[in-house]
Structure prediction request, 396 residues.
Amino acid sequence: MNILICNVGSTSLKYQLFDMDAGEKVLCAGGAERVGAEKSLFYHRNNLTGDAVNQEAIFPSHREAICAMLEQLLCGCIESLSEISCVGFKVVHAKGVTGVQYLTEEVLRAMADFNSVAPAHNPPYIAAIRQFKNLMPDTPMIGSFETAFHANMPPEAYLYSIPLELSKEHAIRRYGFHGASLEYLSTWTAEKMERKDLKLVCCHLGGSGSLCAVKNGISIDTTMGMGLQCGVLQNNRIGDMDPYIIFHLVEECGMSLSEVKTMLQTKSGLYGLSGGVSNDLRDIQEAADAGNEDCRNAVKAYAYGIKKYIGAYTAAMGGVDAIVFGGGIGRNSSSVRQAALEGLECLGVKLDNQKNVSATGGSEISSADSAVRIYVVDTNEEIIVARKAQALLNQS
Prediction:
């Protein structure tokens, strides 16, 4: 069974083709960047032949990028598109829909109903999925929703304290995201520790990031809410903020609601705190090391937010067995990990600084006498989606 997994961004497309019957072997992988720009970039690697493509291209829309991908798949990976059992997507959000679903028009409309709370994710996904449907009309399209991992959170964790009738009528609640990554991190740790009765704090930290309290394999709380703007601060999204700041900016500071919305989505987070230096932590860390005080505070605020949630989730679970870091920042920034864990010895968390600095994916970075294990993991969201898609196909 060959399953094509696609990750769609507003200006990007990434993909992997898995042969699930051959030990989940990745037959090929690639992607397109700068879709919609004057010049785009396309890359592809065929793992069967070792052939690789890395070239400039012109992709006015995702349709052209998808066509380039399909052309490469037929150049030595597969002989016919009929060999693809389904196309799987790591979809984000839909009103009244979660779990693993065939992406029917009804499901796509449910996704569109939540465009307002996932504006950077839902519209490009919906458009790209419709392009796939047009180009591959006989191939099932399957979506694994990021909210599914958090579907069993208790009411005390997911309810907002607005009038209950509003929550019920408009499906307002904490949903949580990054489900594929957080599921992979928690599953990996359970296998590593050879236990299922674990209390974990899983940290998916990247351009977009969230933390999750996982008890006995179940998400019981997470930092993101109905939308993707809350929790720890992100590359250019705000994270936690007093909502009355919005009213102050509109009513007293002369900003329009549209301007505030754009600011919270694109000009806040690390970008905002660094004074516009960058939305990339690597650039901000470099500027901080060179003496930029705003950038130094941005890094500190980011790590402090992570630390607070680790402490909160440890309290919520009545302890913690392991803390797991994944995502681009979680995997690569030893300084963020160190700052986020500093001072948590009271919880039994002891970091081995030497292991932390040299960590690679799959490393344990806790000291020998730490009561809490600390891991750095290369998360694999694509294989989680592929497995869920395969399971749905097998039910049919």
User: Anything to note?
Assistant: The longest helix spans residues 293-317. The mean pLDDT is 96.
